[in-house]
Automatic annotation (TrEMBL):
<keyword id="KW-0720">Serine protease</keyword>
<dbReference type="InterPro" id="IPR029058">
    <property type="entry name" value="AB_hydrolase_fold"/>
</dbReference>
<protein>
    <recommendedName>
        <fullName>Peptidase S9 prolyl oligopeptidase catalytic domain-containing protein</fullName>
    </recommendedName>
</protein>
<feature type="compositionally biased region" description="Polar residues">
    <location>
        <begin position="578"/>
        <end position="600"/>
    </location>
</feature>
<keyword id="KW-0378">Hydrolase</keyword>
<dbReference type="Pfam" id="PF00326">
    <property type="entry name" value="Peptidase_S9"/>
</dbReference>
<keyword id="KW-0645">Protease</keyword>
<dbReference type="InterPro" id="IPR011042">
    <property type="entry name" value="6-blade_b-propeller_TolB-like"/>
</dbReference>
<dbReference type="GO" id="GO:0004252">
    <property type="term" value="F:serine-type endopeptidase activity"/>
</dbReference>
<dbReference type="InterPro" id="IPR011659">
    <property type="entry name" value="WD40"/>
</dbReference>
<feature type="domain" description="Peptidase S9 prolyl oligopeptidase catalytic">
    <location>
        <begin position="429"/>
        <end position="581"/>
    </location>
</feature>
<dbReference type="InterPro" id="IPR001375">
    <property type="entry name" value="Peptidase_S9_cat"/>
</dbReference>
<dbReference type="Pfam" id="PF07676">
    <property type="entry name" value="PD40"/>
</dbReference>
<feature type="region of interest" description="Disordered">
    <location>
        <begin position="575"/>
        <end position="600"/>
    </location>
</feature>
<dbReference type="GO" id="GO:0006508">
    <property type="term" value="P:proteolysis"/>
</dbReference>
Amino acid sequence: MTRLTAEHVVGARVPQTPALAGNGRLLCYVLAPTSCTGDHLDTALWLVDLDGDGEWRRVTADTATESQPRWSADSGTLYFLSDRTERGIAQLHRFTRTDDAVVASTRWRAGIIDHLPLADPHLVALLAEDEPTAADERRARDRDDAIVVGEREPRARLRLLDLRTGEVATPSAFGDRHVVELRQRPDGGPLAVLTQASADPDYGPRSGRLHLFDPVTGTAEDLGPVEADAHSLAWWPGEDGWHLGYLALTPPVLQAGTAVFDLAMDSRARRNRTADLPMCPTELCQTDAAPLVVLADGLNTTLARLDPDGVTPLSQRGGQLDTLSTDGAGTMIAAVAGGRYQPPDVHVGPPAGPLRRVTDTRPELDAVTFGTQRPLTYRAADGLDLDGLLVLPAGRSASDGPFPLVTIAHGGPYDRYDDRLQLFWHPSAQWLAAAGYAVFLPNPRGGQGHGHAFAAAVAGRVGQEEWTDILTGIDLLVAEGIADPDRLGIAGGSHGGFLAAWAVGQTERFRAALVSAGVTDWGMLAATGENGQFEAALGGSTGWCGIGPHPHDAVSPVSFASRVRTPVLILHGAEDTNVPSGRPCTSTGRSATSAPSTSS
């Protein structure tokens, strides 16, 4: 048996964004390290002919950040982004198998954000900000970093690259709106274009609009507003004409489950196609026919087809199924998938299964004996059905308890634990299990996997029923003799960090707590974080809603700080813009330390 080490956790390489060509034969994916020591994350593109010898080969030998592989309509050219010419500035590159050549297709000084090869083999749609002007460069030299709202805000604009001339044209059809996503109709017709009024992560997702764009004439038609946080565009044909779908938050609250919305192009009728499902859509994938939908389904993942009369389940698997890609007909898929004891790898197969693993990116884990992981189902204090995971120390069973128990709350709160291998760089169940701890991974209300109402239940009520959902699970494990009531710990990041901070202000049951990038003051977070309105929906109010006391004060851990008797380790990046640390700044206007942090 090989002992699990820290290098296994942070020194791994993981597959991302598989891209299956329309012919169903060629498959490419990005291989990325889980950590980096410098300023840049060096990734690589790998390619295989599934009908050939099955041998993977690297597309380029450059040291670069390579991402977003996409195939041309004829499956003959692979397009991708790479910063191999100038680190940090991604440009569009293309690779052709006929001559094994990689050619840089753009030299856009602002860099390319996204791209979409079009049905016209000579055109590629690009998303890119405006190139810097002389005034911009002068301000940068003079370190003029004043932020004026509404001025010099970055906007991603739709641009068209003509591969014959290398020229990049910028249509004026969308004015000053920020373009976030493109999808061409499968028959080579117009582009669906999703725009926002701003790139601001708070205001932008609440100001989305859909458009039709004709790449030949350069004209656009406004299809009207869309629900908050719209993304994942997909076309499909119906008996009543073309339909355009997308994922978005279910109105009217910002903290809610996602849904598939269906816009009939002829009638302009719009409807929620997943309103009554006890599952949550996470991806919508276009094919030449009916689109495929990935659904968070409790601890599992369901793959379904969006048919005219509803969602038709095709297959279900335990654990994850992410970044779905299909051939043109939708008869073959590629996705990143993993299992209870298998790390994520690229799998291929028909949508109804079975899927075949075609990569082995972490062979060093083959000899590791992991802790026993099993699903948990139980009922909340008010009778609501809940689930989660229990991970026991390697080689031990429940009858060997009681064990010291660490509860790790997930982030979001619109996230979930699924039945995949729980081995990550952040608080990790298998890492703790290797040290002899039992680990409880609860899915309290507010998360994915159980439909809209389950997800929306925490809006304005964070730390209430979701907290008792977690306590009920801990009490169950104590009663079953699995958890030692005198050796309990709690941890979490982002919203999970909030729950860990909340816990130590409500009870002294825990011997230690870890709060990573956690929310401690909802009013401050709504005022300073990137997603103010979203956070206000969770906390229930803002600091400018009158004199107070405010509803968010009653659910902010800082309000109960005087009660805390538990040792707490607080980890927070000084440059975290999602959940700002709130620490004082130096006179230069920059944080005194520069450790980055991300949270979800």
